[in-house]
Specification:
single chain, mainly alpha, Helix Hairpins, 3-stranded mixed beta sheet, 5 helices, 3 strands
Length: 235
């Protein structure tokens, strides 16, 4: 019984440590997984790639269409200048077709130019987004590796601390341990308070001299009259 207060104080130190280690573990676990930065960088790259694919396909379609129109123009011109068509109405029809096709050619050429410019811009954008994504991904991987190591270390430390706590708790009488646990819940994790110069360090209130003497002797459990914590003196 002589050192019971000290054992409880050691137990409290272990419990505080265990709490800190556990909250650090939760924090590290919470940081695992994809970061917002990574998701954003990948999203930007995918969006630009998708748009580039769209404009490349549009450019191909326009070029194909332009090719088709130019073939038609060639065929129309061949007929127009072959001298085989003499009917004025048919000739006028051919000329109208020719004019219409030339206008289509002009429009398509404009659109091809526009699509080419857009493809150029998007190729640059995709390259930039890819570089950014690679950098963010590398940074993220390094961070995840560091987190995994930190988590493993914390889990190891928690297991060790739990073992130490179990060994220590086994030395305490069950009713005393029950009181400690009860106070720990009520007093924000601090069931034991040091008494320094006759003052309870848990609530900063002076302990009456007679009571303080019993605490110093350490033969029985004394609680602070003000905050209710178990009082101990440090060796
Ligand atoms: Zn107190």
């Amino acid at each position: 019984m002589a050192k019971i207060g000290h054992t409880l104080y050691q137990l409290q130190l272990l419990d505080i440590e265990l709490n800190e280690q556990t909250s650090k573990l939760r924090e590290a676990e919470g940081l695992q997984g994809e970061s917002a930065e990574l998701i954003a960088a990948r999203g930007a790259y995918e969006q630009a790639s998708k748009e580039l694919a769209h404009w490349r396909s549009r450019l191909r379609d326009l070029e194909f269409e332009l090719h088709r129109v130019m073939e038609k123009i060639a065929a129309t011109e061949q007929r127009l200048y072959s001298g085989q068509v003499t009917n004025p109405k048919e000739l006028r029809g051919l000329q109208q077709d020719h004019e219409h096709l030339k206008r289509s050619q002009q429009n398509l050429e404009d659109e091809v130019l526009l699509a080419m410019t857009r493809v150029d811009e998007l190729e640059k954008q995709v390259a930039e987004a890819e570089t950014k994504l690679e950098a963010v991904d590398a940074k993220w991987r390094a961070e995840q590796e560091r987190l995994a190591q930190q988590i493993a270390q914390l889990q190891e430390r928690i297991a060790t601390t739990k073992k130490q706590r179990a060994t220590l708790a086994a030395r305490v009488e069950p009713p005393t341990l029950a009181l400690y646990e009860e106070l720990r819940l009520k007093k924000g994790g601090r069931a034991v308070a040091l008494m320094v110069d006759q003052m309870c360090q848990g609530c900063r209130v002076m302990i009456p001299t007679s009571k303080a003497q019993i605490v110093r002797r350490g033969q029985e459990l004394i609680t602070c009259t003000n905050c209710g914590r178990i009082l101990v003196v440090q060796d």
